[in-house]
């Protein structure tokens, strides 16, 4: 019996959605039919040496144009594509027919996979409408073994009453599909959650502890070979916290708050001290764990009355007059952690129903990247991804097709650069301004049809023609004498003049024994001698298939 893979099928799955025509009907083709476009620099803002990029244009064409320079170099991708809900969004056509939406996503995900670094990670933000279908498509492209998590984000708080027009089951969740390119090589950062501590949680920490001075008691090595030092504390004091203590006093003395905790019997190292230390005195055992969160660094465990004293500061912290507890990251991100309310004016731009909180992107970027890494968002919207990446000292690339590349993103990023933007995460990360970015648009196709005379013509000349043809044909542009592009041991030359036999011989003289050449030209001598090391392609005819 032949083995068949599990996959999702739909009409035109094997095609690329090139565009929608003037009637909104899909135009299907193949990857060869995807226009080759140059990125044309329009402006630069801020630091002239900054490498950040904003591109206005169709993200299929923009991602294709990014491949020669950025394939395999993007550490983190976050995209928030239209959810295909049928809603009439102000900035997006969010009601694409189902199979068109799937085709749109498939082709872009294939390009994003090529751009992603081998150790890279992609987050795709989606709602329940297309979640299941998108999961299967991403399993095909990224492979299900590379699924890291499906994160549930509670976008809106719980609604406690049923109002007019509300559903009996309210939708309050959105989802982030998280995939590695290669899960054996991906590098996730350990990030803790920050949750408002409830009074019930903090009531467990019911001791004020004053440690006093400490003196050396003994030193030794455990049966398992772990060196340790025991200190005895003098003038210590342990008191119960009064039940009627005020929140202000509790916060004021937060660093002295502890609770008793039974020693885990499975921890044979710490358990060995419980019965050997005087229960009426307070001891500290200093050692270096070999595993766990504290592996490789000295820690001190306090013992009193046959229990371990556990400080509140190990699991919580005070900020802005509130106590927050730290928790391990999970795939449930609640509205209490990351709220989408009160974000309308973040970044100084309004993007009704489409904007995501800077705190959400901060967590994504913290988990999936480090300072200096490249973060990519090809559905940039109002520019939240770039704004947050910039404030967190990452490099970024954003692509946006709509007018709001100029009406929203450029003004927002200018405020970030100047330091004027103190909204979102600015105060939390101490953002004061700096950096810069370049703004690009997509150029014309390499070739186009002259409507007056009905023939194919080249839309570029000189260096831009060289760049465009190398991009179209998969060569990397080089500055190596008369050779313009390279792909392994295969070189390209773009001729602006009539190509003669002498012209070809001159180019061949610059090749090594195992190297070959393709010459792109508009005209050449029909009597040229053939060569197994040189191929001549006439332009624009040779490029028309991709136009």
Describe the structure in your own words.
With 547 residues, this protein is α/β, with parallel strands linked by helices. The chain folds into three domains: 16-160 and 167-191 and 330-443, Rossmann fold, CATH 3.40.50; 199-319, no CATH class; 446-546, Trna Endonuclease, Chain: A, domain 1. Helices cover 21% and strands 32% of the residues. It contains twelve helices and 30 strands. The strands form six sheets. The chain has a ten-stranded mixed beta sheet, sandwiched between helices. β21, α8 (384-391) and β22 form a beta-alpha-beta unit. α8 runs parallel beside α9. The longest helix has 18 residues, at 98-115. The radius of gyration is 31 Å and the shape is elongated. The two termini are 43 Å apart.
Brief synopsis:
The protein has 547 residues and is α/β, with parallel strands linked by helices.
Task: Reconstruct the topology from this structure.
Elements lengths: L15 E5 L5 E4 L7 E10 L5 E5 L2 H12 L3 E6 L18 H18 E11 L4 H12 L4 E8 L18 E8 L11 E5 L2 H4 L4 E4 L2 E9 L5 E8 L2 E4 L6 H6 L4 E5 L6 H7 L7 E6 L11 E6 L2 E5 L4 E4 L2 E7 L3 E2 L24 H11 L5 E4 L6 H8 L3 E6 L3 H15 L7 H4 L6 E10 L1 E4 L4 E4 L3 H12 L2 E5 L2 E5 L2 E5 L6 H8 L7 E6 L12 E5 L9
Helix pairs in contact: 1-2, 2-3, 7-8, 8-9
List keywords for this structure.
547 residues, 10-stranded mixed β-sheet, Rossmann fold, 30 strands, 8-stranded antiparallel β-sheet, Trna Endonuclease, Chain: A, domain 1, alpha/beta, single chain, 3 domains
Largest sheet: 10 strands, mixed
- Sheet/helix structural class: alpha/beta
In total, the number of domains comes to 3
Q: What would the average pLDDT be, to the nearest integer?
A: 88
| Rg over alpha carbons | 31 Å
- Distance between the ends: 43 Å
| Helix segment tally | 12
The CATH homologous superfamily of the largest domain is termed: Vaccinia Virus protein VP39
CATH architecture assignment of the largest domain: 3-Layer(aba) Sandwich
Helix content: 10-25%
**What's the β-strand tally?**
30
The top level CATH class name of the largest domain:
Alpha Beta
